[in-house]
Amino acid sequence: MGFCVTFNQFNRRLHLYLALTLLPWIVMYGISAIPMTRPSLKDGMYNDNPSLWTTRSEHQYERVVPDGISRDEMRQLGRKILKDFGIEVRSTFGAYSLRKKRLTVYASDFWSFTRITYNIEAQHVKIQDKQFRWSHFLTGLHGRGGFAHETPLNYVWSVLVDLVALGFLLWIASGLYMWWQAPGVRRWGFVALLSGLMSFTIFVLVL
Question: How much is the pTM?
Answer without folding.
Answer: 0.77
